[in-house]
């Protein structure tokens, strides 16, 4: 849509430039001042319409830009929240890892304690076995010697009680080691269970971090995408703003041109009225210079070469009417080359026609008739193509006034 409007705008600008380039040579004939004024007004309407279309596009783009900026802000906020969530997950993971390390250390210590308990049990059991084996296999064992050394029954009973207490002690110690071993083993099982649970939590945390990282990446991609779209929209908006500024400047210049054309047209009407009301010389008082016939015939060719003879004579009569009027130059060359009067002079068409003598026999005939004082348009000093509202004498494709 924007490209189409740009192309259309460029076309209008080119047309305006071409139009304004021709303004310094305003004319009173086929492309006369009134026609230029109407063309300028049409151009103004078209330029105003173009500006309105650009304004609408600007408003639409501003709305889109606002939506993009809002979405971009929301995504950035979401990205910040995700980063905070990721930081919390990382902190939680660090805590879990610390707990796991601590739990692993506890398990290692428990395993060491369990090994020590197992070894103590084994040692005590082996000691008991050795004492029992010694008591039965060796008749001169410590226990037997102890019993035989008794000097009385009471002392013998005391030795027997001592041996019984020693056996009870060994049994209690063995039971204690067994209990310790079982407790340590149970503790190891519990620690292993806790460690497994921590590992599950750790994996869940890692999965959560992976999920958050994926969301962060996706959100960051969207943030970058919207940032790029915003940048593009801002560039387009800046371009549209520049186009609007140029269009406003062109409209202001066009308004000034229209005012100048209105003023020029009013001046032409006054000049026409003044020419008709002012003193006029008789054709017999005009001294034609060498080359006037050649110059007038080629001007007639440029202005009315495709018109019938009557139209060619009328153009020649307009030039001579000006020569005869006291408000215009009093020579053919002075009238023709008067500033901003005849467009073929400014465009170079007259110079080209003069260099190649483009004038046809009928153009020379019309020039001779006009220079002799003939006129079929009375005292008219302007002519142009017909337009609504303009009255005058119409001959062929021109109205003379």
Structure explained in plain terms:
Among the domains are: 102-224, no CATH class; 281-401, Orthogonal Bundle (Arc Repressor Mutant, subunit A). The two termini are 47 Å apart. The longest helix has 125 residues, at 153-277. With 401 residues, it is mainly α. It is built from 10 helices and 3 strands, in the order ααααααααααβββ. α5 (292-304) crosses α6 and α5 (292-304) crosses α9.
First-to-last CA distance? 47 Å
Overall pLDDT confidence: 82
Strand order of the largest sheet: 1-3-2
Order of helices and strands: HHHHHHHHHHEEE
C-alpha-based Rg, rounded? 59 Å
Shape: rod-shaped
- Name the beta content range: under 5%
Secondary structure: number of strands: 3
Counting H and I runs of at least 4 residues, what is the number of helices?
10
What is the percent of helical residues?
over 70%
Poorly predicted runs of 5 or more residues? 1-31
Structural class: mainly alpha
**How many strands, what sense, and barrel or not for the largest sheet?**
3 strands, antiparallel
